Amino acid sequence: MRIINLIENTEGSTGCVCAHGLSFYVETSKHKLLVDLGPSEETLRNAEKLGVDLTQVDTVILSHGHYDHSGGLMAFSKINPGATIYMQESAGDDYYADDGNGADKERYRYIGIDKDILNLAQVKSVKGDYRIDDELELFTVKERTHKLPFTNKRLLIRENGKYIQDDFRHEHYLVISDDDMRVLISGCAHNGIHSILDAYKDKYGSCPDAVISGFHLMKKVEYTDEELGEVVDIGKELKKYPTMFYTCHCTGEPAYKMMKLSMGEQLQYVHSGDEVTIKNG
Question: pTM of this prediction?
């Protein structure tokens, strides 16, 4: 299995553009696929720089309905109109961030996908868990076993003219089974990485060999003591898994460094343009 980050928030050694968003390119025995397409067409330019031919991609997974994971989709569809794009049917709803009363512009900022994506013939909307084939499967969190990460409080959905807490039903997770290895890829883990792993164990009866995911722990201001404790506790709990974790994007480097104090080499950061090397066992 080959896994390459096409774009995320931090600069790597490849000279690729970095930006707030996420995209991974994955080659398996049967597929060439993308998980998300970053915030813009820069994702496509990074792919070209890395020697990744996006015209050969057969499958795209949109992890959830936010702009920073879907911004390159329309440009991608022009060079590759044949790849099937899987998303939850609620991924096209109206998602907003609450920037607070002190925001320079309007308090509620639209962070959903470009609605033109919904008109693409190659889009396949699914509801809940969905098996693509014997290599690729999507699953969802039906009921959270842990509270939402504190950073999700400002993420909203607009329904009937009102802004309410996003329930993240538009989020799903990809499981790749390849060469006796099972890899779980999530975009931002908005539902909480612990709830996601519990849903995985409930479905598959085991733990994944590797997890690649943002943990949505980034803040633009300093953490409170309670929030710092939550970040540290997440790292301590993940340490108990027989799983390798790769993170990036919305985790943020400060949270990553705090988690790494307990997780050590079991947690690695993936920068823009990096290739992920997963060792089984």
Answer: 0.96
